[in-house]
């Protein structure tokens, strides 16, 4: 009985130490990654603007993303994902004549 209690106490202490170590490393590396990501911006602070555009025949989310994501922190795929989220779209399918909200960046 004593051995079991001693074992449980050691395991509890070990697990607590392991969780504290994991919390330390996640905080340290999370901060390091965020700092690295902030340094990537290179000091160019762009403002975020929103507008609505009417879709023309032949438009696609990918073409719109290529146009408006140029020079931003978004890749084309990330911009398409953001367009779909902002406009409540579940697929890439859009129709000419419809309006969608887009985000663009400027100073």
> Into which percentage range does the β-strand content fall?
5-15%
Instruction: Provide the structure class.
Output: alpha+beta
Count of alpha/pi helices: 3
Biggest sheet layout: 2 strands, antiparallel
> How much helicity do the residues have?
55-70%
Instruction: Please mark out the parts with pLDDT under 50 across 5 or more consecutive residues, or reply none.
Output: none
Q: Mean of residue pLDDT?
A: 82
Alpha-carbon Rg, integer: 24 Å
Strand adjacency order, main sheet = 1-2
User: What is the H/E string?
Assistant: HEHHE
- Measured between the Cα atoms of the first and last residue, the distance is 71 Å
- How many strands in all? 2
Query: Which term fits the overall shape?
Result: elongated
Structural notes for this entry:
Helix content is about 55%, strand content about 15%. With about 110 residues, the chain is of the alpha+beta class. The longest helix is centred in the N-terminal third of the chain and has 39 residues, at about 1-40. The protein is elongated. It starts with a helix and ends with a strand. The model has no long low-confidence stretch (mean pLDDT about 80).
Quick tags:
single chain; 107 residues; alpha+beta; two-stranded antiparallel ribbon; 3 helices; 15% strand
Describe the structure concisely for a colleague:
With 107 residues, this protein is an alpha+beta fold. The chain contains 3 helices and 2 strands.
SSE diagram, text form:
Elements: H1 2-40, E1 47-54, H2 61-68, H3 76-87, E2 99-106
Antiparallel strand pairs: 1-2
